[in-house]
Design brief:
single chain, 422 residues, mainly beta, 19-stranded parallel β-sheet, 12% helix, 35% strand
């Protein structure tokens, strides 16, 4: 359809088609001898036919009594009800940037049974700040190329040689080499957050890396997000952050680096590990869980923390961490391995291993609680287990040791200001 010019009564001509003929529409002015333009039949029939065609193509039956059909047709054309796949980056992609892809999908609703998958081929791609909120984001997927080099590494394969700044930097570099050999698609950020906000997008087979100036690489707030075969590395503050009541379901995830934390779960956040979760080489704490938050690793999957300047795991302010039997380990940290503080805070890691720590393997303070039966470990600078200020540790059958001793206070004895280890 195009603009239809008017009929010229003086010459009998139709002026033609196109935007330039809008100027030919003039009002009559009898006092000046100007004869007004006349609309032709096409000026009426073309718009009607165009509207009726749109209504019919939307699957509606044109009805003269229903004056909302055009709007209904427009709305239906913006609904995705099948599986749609688009490419981002690479050769002749549908979108040349993540931002363009998100702008496109923002104009659509995705019905139950529909989905949108954005696929990126092997390669390294620079991206900018991603702040995203979509009402149907649970049906949106970002996927990299298939894993290579034997697939996802075992939890023990990632490098962790120490907690000093030199060791942390070397381990980060080593783990990026491991990740790039297995995950061929990498999103690279510089100086900004890769911010996933209040929209439950799924990330699969991606390496998300920063330049150590990036604040938080992957942030989930107020919703449930999903990460499968994802490595996040090289953040300036936190590699992964889950907060404000948000949840992250991680099916095999690694977080390496971060001046503060490799992974932080805070402000009512929840982390559910449905595969191995590894957090290493942080400037403060590898896994920090606090302020009414929880982390839980499902049965048979590993939770490995270590290489942090202070603690492998810190749990505080009415928070909790749960690991299935024999799946949790903390190693090569500057201070403690498993550390909980504050009433209502607890760590449940039966069969856990705490080793090569600057101070103590398992520490409970200020009315917090650790359940670590049958736990083990050694080469720790302090104790195997230590409780203070009303803290409680249940280490039945535990054998973790330190150079200062095995337990403090003495087993089954009230000491260290109301604390006890059993």
């Amino acid at each position: 359809m195009d603009i239809v010019g008017p009929f010229n009564p003086a010459t009998g001509e139709i002026w033609g088609y196109g935007a330039s003929f809008l100027a030919k529409w003039v009002d009559a002015n009898p006092g000046s001898g100007i004869v007004g333009a006349y609309p032709t039949a096409l000026a009426f029939t073309h718009p009607q036919q165009e509207i009726v065609n749109a209504i019919a193509e939307a699957g509606l039956t044109p009805d003269h009594a229903d004056l909302s059909q055009l709007w209904a047709a427009i709305q239906s054309s913006r609904i995705i009800d099948t599986a749609v796949t688009k490419t981002v980056f690479g050769v002749d992609p549908d979108f040349s940037s993540v931002e363009d892809a998100l702008e496109w999908v923002s104009y659509y609703r995705i019905a139950l049974g529909g989905s949108v998958t954005f696929q990126s081929p092997a390669g390294q791609y620079a991206i900018n700040l991603l702040s995203f909120d979509h009402p149907d984001a649970s049906r949106i997927f970002f996927e990299g190329a298939a894993l290579t080099g034997g697939g996802w590494p075992a939890a023990s394969a990632w490098a962790c040689t120490g907690y000093g700044s030199t060791e942390r930097a070397a381990d980060l570099a080593s783990n990026l080499v491991i990740a790039r050999a297995r995950i061929p698609t990498e999103f690279i950020l510089s100086g900004s957050d890769f911010w996933h906000q209040r929209s439950p997008v799924t990330f699969k087979r991606l390496l998300i890396s920063g330049d150590s100036h990036t604040g938080t690489l992957l942030l989930t707030q107020g919703t449930m997000a999903f990460a499968e075969d994802v490595v996040v590395a090289g953040a300036g503050e936190r590699c992964v952050a889950v907060g404000a009541g948000g949840s992250l379901v991680a099916t095999r995830m690694g977080a390496f680096g971060g001046d503060n934390y490799a992974i932080e779960v805070a402000e009512g956040g929840n982390l559910l590990g449905q595969g191995d979760v590894v957090a290493l080489s942080a400037g403060d704490v590898a896994l920090n869980v606090w302020r009414n938050s929880h982390a839980r690793i499902s049965s048979g999957n590993k939770l490995r923390v270590g290489g942090a300047a202070n603690h492998g795991m810190f749990v505080g302010s009415s928070s909790a961490v749960f690991g299935s039997t024999g799946t949790a380990s903390a190693e090569r940290c500057g201070v403690h391995g498993f550390y909980t503080q504050g009433s209502g805070s607890n760590i449940d890691v039966a069969g856990a291993v705490a080793s090569n720590l600057g101070d103590t393997g398992f520490v409970a303070t200020h009315n917090s609680y650790i359940s670590a039966p049958a736990s083990s470990g050694g080469t720790n600078g302090g104790y195997g287990y230590a409780a203070y200020d009303g803290g409680r540790i249940q280490r039945s059958g535990g054998t973790c040791t330190g150079s200062t001793g095995s337990v403090s206070p003495t087993l089954t004895t009230d000491g260290n200001r109301g604390a006890m280890i059993t």
